[in-house]
Design goal:
Number of strands of chain B: 5
Shape of chain B: elongated
Radius of gyration of chain A: 35 Å
Number of helices of chain A: 2
Strand order of the largest sheet of chain A: 9-16-15-12-13
Oligomer: heterodimer
Largest sheet of chain A: 5 strands, mixed
Distance between the termini of chain B: 80 Å
Structural class of chain A: mainly beta
Order of helices and strands of chain A: HEEEEEEEHEEEEEEEEEE
Order of helices and strands of chain B: HHHHHEEEEHE
CATH architecture of one domain in chain A: Sandwich
Strand content of chain B: 15-25%
Distance between the termini of chain A: 64 Å
Strand content of chain A: 35-45%
CATH class of one domain in chain A: Mainly Beta
Largest interface: A-B, 36 and 43 residues
Helix content of chain B: 40-55%
Chain lengths: 309, 161
Amino acid sequence: MKRRTTLLMLTIVSLWSSPALAWDPFRDEAPSEPPKPAREPDPAPFIAPPPGIYYVTDTYVADLVTTTGPVTTYSTTTVHESTGSYARVLDTVGTGAASPFDGSSFNGRRVVGDGRAVAGTYYENYVLSEGGFVPISIVFFQDDAELARLLGDAPAPAVTRPAPSTPPVATRPVPPGCCAPQPPVVTTAPPTPTPTRPIRPGISLLPVSTPLTVLEVLRGRAVSLYPRAFVDDRELPVRSWLVVAGNAGEPVATAGRGGTPFTTSWRQLAPPGAMYELVFRIEVDTPDTGQQTVDATIAVVVRSPALER
Amino acid sequence: MSWMRDDRGTALVLTLVLAPLLLIALAGVLQLGALRVVAARVRAAADLATLVAVNDQDGAELARSGVLRLSTDAVDVAREYFARELELSSSLLDSAAAEIAAAADVAAYPSAPAYDTYTGARYDRPAVRIAAHVPVRTPVFGALVLRPVTTIDVLSVSSPR
């Protein structure tokens, strides 16, 4: 009896289970039409770069004004460094010539002794993002010179002689007086005065970008900070910098020379509602300012992508 | 009355009656468990996609203002990664992963505070939100005269905090 029952159960189970095991839930989804041929994805859309753009290999550091005897030279100091940015020439202007970009550069445009704007070239800086070239700032590279009257009223012999047919750079013939013809006289530009305002420090993410006081960074992401110094609208070359206080995260170095960024990353978030205060001691040493140190502070907020729900 | 004490036939009857019921119940439980696993994978796909999109920040804006701001293509990044993550579970989905991601409601809120018109939530930080309906194959349910395709509603929001 037991053998018959067992045999019967096995028969029933096997007959009952086989259709279920053979059932294919996806058999109705067989492709009714041939699959579409694989298509190569479209290449990334071509984004035309601004005309005349080039890769920057010499980065702006500061405006430089030097006086040698009666000659005052306006030039721009650069550092041979590639920051990954691009630039193009916006406008090249002569002495006293107006430009539509006047007032748009972060370093301003100086004037010579008689109040005219110095000659130079406006450049626009770009960074290359996924959306193309993004303009970030405009910088003015001054390139001019003028003959200044020597201290005292006696003009220098070299500049009181009649002007040549082509006047020297940055000199201006004074209009003749009303009563007697006078030889052209060079401008009475005094040397660039020593800045009286204090040195203003700043920290920026790029060598030529806007100085920041508060910075948000993502946790663990490397960030480079450029210590900088300014007097009025003029940037001073930084000789060296040093991190003197604050949570510096995991820095590559806590001190460096001018033009070298402070590179670090933070792997820890600050306590809720708090931020990391980072203090840099910046040393400048120029003929105008002498050797000075100023402290720059930047507050760093470390954030991390998180789920809201 | 000896036949009342003879239970040799009851085992067969019980087996014939209960085995199908037990197997049906077992199949339903297994399908339900598989559905929960798929739902977890879909939620993880949406969460990861929003996290990746939030992690993609606008470098130019950061250099200009020092403030984290979502990249202009945050929506596209979220949608792309949602499709990539769903592709890993494509055998369980009733539609192509790319189609599901394309139909998903993806929104980026680059500045805060912002209000989500879909959920009504307020975001105090720049956020990326994905709301999607993901159809999942449930063949056992279909065999049991239930729905052969079950739709999973997923909602994920991420922001840098």
